[in-house]
Amino acid sequence: ERGIRQLWRETANSELAAPIGDILMHAVWLCYRLTRQGEVLEQFTADALSGRTPGAVTHFRRAAALRRLGAWDDAIAELDTALAQLTTASEFTRTFSEQIIREREFIVQARSVGDDIARHESAIGSMERDSLARSVQIVTLFTAVIAFASGSIGVAQSGTTLRHQLVIAMALGTGLAMFSLLGMTDIHAMTA
């Protein structure tokens, strides 16, 4: 990346700046392994658009950069500009027009997929929160049941009659039920 940027700067004021710039933009456009490909290409195309009368190819490259950066609408606008600049009836114009149209369709699909991914991520986040809340509810209830069982045995045995033991167990059971209901309500309210 550093070498391409240096070459871009060194040739910016040259009489061959336009063709060298086109070659460099094409090289960056093809270099999918470049970590910051979208950013570098966007910068080069912005420089090219400000320094000279841009051609359709420059707008096409800029659209590719903007697509990589997720600026879908701006990328589509650049493609529309590129398509509008193709006015001759040559084989290049026909082939390049098809390429622009394919890129536009690709961007429209990418934007749609991006929207779908955002919706799914939101739904997954909601499910994760609900799942976590449900896990806490289950652990809380299980802990309360164990505490009830252990406490009931010891406390109920301290009762003098069977009736007294049953009343103590029912009181503890009612307390457990209230604790469980309140715990589930509080957890559900936190995740909503």
Helix content: over 70%
User: What are the low-pLDDT stretches, counting only 5+ consecutive residues below 50?
Assistant: none
Mean pLDDT: 76
By secondary-structure content and strand pairing, the structural class works out as mainly alpha
What separation lies between the terminal Cα atoms?
47 Å
User: What does the overall shape look like?
Assistant: rod-shaped
The biggest sheet, with number of strands, parallel, antiparallel or mixed sense and barrel status, is: none
Number of helices: 7
Q: Can you count the beta strands?
A: 0
Question: Order of helices and strands, N to C?
Answer: HHHHHHH
Radius of gyration: 34 Å
Percentage of β-strand residues: under 5%
Structure write-up:
With about 190 residues, the protein is an all-alpha fold. It is rod-shaped. α1 packs antiparallel against α2, α4 packs antiparallel against α5 and α5 runs antiparallel to α6. Helix content is about 85%, strand content about 0%.
Write the layout of secondary structure elements.
Layout (H helix, E strand, L loop, with lengths): L1 H10 L5 H14 L6 H15 L4 H13 L3 H14 L5 H67 L4 H30 L1
Helix pairs in contact: 1-2, 2-3, 2-4, 3-4, 4-5, 5-6, 6-7
How do you describe this structure in short?
By secondary structure, the chain is an all-alpha fold.
What descriptors fit this protein?
7 helices; 192 residues; mainly alpha
